[in-house]
Amino acid sequence: MTWSFVRVQYVEPREGYTVDVHFTDGSQREINLAPYLQGPIFEPIRKDPSLFRSMQVEEGTIVWPNGADIDPDVLFYCLTPAWAATTETSNCENQL
Fold this sequence. Notes:
By secondary structure, this protein is α+β, with helices and mostly antiparallel strands. The chain has one domain (8-81): NE0471 N-terminal domain-like. The chain has 3 helices and 6 strands. The chain is globular. The chain starts with 7 loop residues before the first strand and ends in a 20-residue tail after the last helix.
């Protein structure tokens, strides 16, 4: 059995914290990243729109110059990040 992982291929910032994410399986989704930008590493990204917009794709995930990143599986499968397992952070209910 061959497993293939869907990863981020391209990301384009939109208004606010919304991004247009293109995945390696050819799908595309508009995702509001605001619920995922929690914790100290994301604080500068939340406070500085130009830093937020400086995101890039490296090794199949969204990354920022300060070392922050978001797991591509969380984005693709609309999962709750591990750090938020006790809170309701799902952001994809209306986006699938």
